[in-house]
Amino acid sequence: MKARDSILALLLLLPAVAQAAPKKSPVIARPAAKRPAGTTRTAAPVAAPADPAALVMDARAAAARGETDLALRLAQSAIVADPARASSYDALGDVYAANHQAEYARNYYEEALSIDPADASARKAIAGLDRAGDTRKADASDGAKSPIP
Question: What is the DSSP letter of 21?
Answer without folding.
Answer: S
